[in-house]
Write a structure and sequence with these properties.
CATH architecture of the largest domain in chain A: 3-Layer(aba) Sandwich
Largest sheet of chain B: none
CATH architecture of the largest domain in chain B: Orthogonal Bundle
CATH class of the largest domain in chain B: Mainly Alpha
Largest sheet of chain A: 4 strands, parallel
Order of helices and strands of chain A: EHEHEHHEHHEHHEHHEHEHH
Number of domains of chain A: 2
Oligomer: heterodimer
Largest interface: A-B, 43 and 39 residues
C-alpha cells in the first residue's frame, strides 16, 4: 500500500512525535507513505466564508498532485484532514469555486475533485483493517485503560467528513482494541476542546479541558489519546492549571500507542509506562 | 431594539446572508444549537438568539456581541439543527465583515513569540490569525 503523504506545518515543528511515530509504525506495517515533494500549509481552518477563495489553493495543489501520482492523499493532523476533505467537497459541488481555482492554478490536468484524501486512522480501518493490524501487534497494551478523544475536526460536519458516526463514533475505540488496550467509554469524547481560543482566551479553554479530562478520569481512564496537535496542546498544557493534588491524565497521539504496540518505538514506550 | 423594514432590508443583513450562504429565516427557534454549544456559558447572546436577532434584522446587536468571538467553530450546532442552518457559517460571516474593516485585527504578530514559547502548535497560531485577523 502506497500513499502520497501530506504532513502539514505542525508535524514538522511542534508535533514531530506524531509524525515520527506514525511513519515508524507505517514502515513496520509495510505501508509506504511518500511525502509530497511540494506541499503548503492547509490554512489550519476551513474557509467558512463563501467568498474566500485563496484558502482552497493549497488543498487543491496537494489533492491534484496525489491524484496525478495515482495515489490517495494521506493526512495525520485532524485540522489538515478537515480542511482538505472539505475543500475537495467544495470543488466537487461548487462549479464557481472549481472554475476559479482551476483558472488560477493552471494545473496540467483540470482538477474536478477526482483526488481522495484519507486520514491515517481511516487507512488503518478501511484499507489495512483492524483485524490485520491486531495480528501485527507485538506488545499488546493489555490492561491499559485508554480514553479516545475525537474532538471536532475529524467528525464534523458528518455529511462531508464521513469519518464515523459523529454523535457516537467508534473508530478510535476499535483502534485501541486492536492494540490490545481497553477503550474507556466516556461522555465528553466528542466535545470541543476549545481549539484556537487558547491563543487569546485561555480561561474558557481551561474549563472545557477540565470537563473532558475529569469525565475521562471518572470513567477510569489512565491516559487519553487524540489525533490533533491543537487538542493535544490544550489537553496537555491546560491540565497543568489543575490544582495540586488533583488527578491528571497523560496525553498521547494515537500513533504513539500504535508505535509502542508494534514494538517500534522504545522511547515512546518508556514515557508511556512512566 | 426596534424591528423595522429598513433594518430587515439592510445591506448588512444581505451581506451576512451572502457571505454565510445561510438562510436564517429557516430557523424555528428550537434551541438545539444553544443546548449543543460547549461554550454557551461564556456567551452574552445565546446561539439561537443570534439567529433570532438576524431574522428580525437586528444586525447591530450581533455585530457588537461577545458571542461571535467565543464561537469555536466546533460545528456541533450545525450537526444538530433540524432545519439545516449552519450557524458556524453565520458566525463566520459576521466575524469576517468586522475583520475586513481597516485596523480591526485582534491578534498582534509581536505577541506571538510569547504564545509560541508556551508550546502552542503552529496550527493554533495559524488558526488564531485566520479567525481573529484578515
Amino acid at each position: 500500500m502506497r500513499y502520497s503523504y501530506y504532513p502539514g506545518c505542525t508535524l514538522k515543528t511542534t508535533a514531530t512525535v506524531l509524525e515520527e511515530s506514525a511513519l515508524e509504525s507505517a514502515r513496520s506495517l509495510g505501508i509506504e507513505l511518500v511525502e509530497q515533494e511540494e506541499w503548503q500549509c492547509c490554512g489550519a481552518v476551513f474557509p467558512l466564508a463563501t467568498d474566500e477563495m485563496a484558502a482552497f489553493l493549497s488543498s487543491v495543489r496537494s489533492l491534484s498532485a496525489a491524484s496525478e501520482a495515482g495515489e490517495k492523499l494521506l493526512t495525520l493532523c485532524a485540522a489538515c484532514h478537515h480542511v482538505i476533505k472539505r475543500a475537495n467537497h467544495v470543488i466537487i459541488n461548487n462549479s464557481d469555486v472549481r472554475e476559479k481555482v482551476n483558472n488560477y492554478l493552471e494545473l496540467d490536468d483540470y482538477y474536478g475533485g477526482q483526488g481522495e484524501v484519507i486520514h491515517y486512522l481511516e487507512m488503518l480501518r478501511d484499507e489495512l483493517g483492524f483485524e490485520e493490524l491486531s495480528s501485527k501487534i507485538k506488545q499488546p497494551l493489555e490492561g491499559r485503560r485508554v480514553a479516545a478523544y475525537y474532538g471536532c475536526l475529524l467528525l464534523r460536519p458528518a455529511k462531508i467528513m464521513q469519518f464515523d458516526n459523529a454523535e457516537n463514533p467508534s473508530i478510535m475505540e476499535d483502534f485501541l482494541a486492536a492494540l490490545g488496550a481497553e477503550a474507556v467509554d466516556y461522555p465528553y469524547r466528542t466535545e470541543c476542546c476549545g481549539v484556537y481560543l487558547s491563543v487569546n482566551n485561555e480561561e474558557i479553554v481551561s474549563g472545557m479541558v477540565d470537563k473532558i479530562i475529569s469525565s475521562a478520569l471518572r470513567y477510569g481512564a489512565e491516559a487519553i489519546v487524540n489525533a490533533c496537535p491543537l487538542c493535544h496542546y490544550n489537553l496537555l498544557e491546560l491540565q497543568k492549571k489543575t490544582p495540586e493534588g488533583e488527578p491528571t491524565l497523560p496525553v498521547y497521539y494515537f500513533t504513539e500507542l500504535l508505535a509502542e504496540a508494534l514494538g517500534v518505538n522504545s522511547t515512546v514506550k518508556d514515557s508511556a509506562a512512566g | 431594539m426596534k424591528v423595522t423594514t429598513e433594518n430587515l432590508r439592510s445591506n448588512i443583513i444581505k451581506d451576512i446572508a451572502e457571505i454565510s450562504g445561510e438562510n436564517v429565516a429557516e430557523c424555528y427557534q428550537c434551541g438545539k444549537c444553544t443546548a449543543a454549544c460547549p461554550v454557551n456559558q461564556a456567551m452574552d447572546i445565546l446561539p439561537h438568539q443570534v439567529l433570532r436577532l438576524l431574522q428580525l434584522g437586528l444586525a447591530d446587536e450581533v455585530m457588537n456581541c461577545k458571542t461571535i468571538w467565543i464561537c469555536a467553530s466546533c460545528f456541533t450546532c450545525a450537526g444538530r439543527c433540524p432545519r439545516d442552518v449552519d450557524l458556524a457559517n453565520v458566525m463566520e460571516a459576521v466575524r469576517v465583515i468586522l475583520l475586513r474593516k481597516r485596523d480591526s485585527t485582534m491578534l498582534k504578530a509581536e505577541d506571538m513569540p510569547e504564545v509560541l514559547a508556551k508550546g502552542m502548535p503552529e496550527q493554533g497560531i495559524v488558526s488564531g490569525f485566520r479567525k481573529y485577523a484578515k
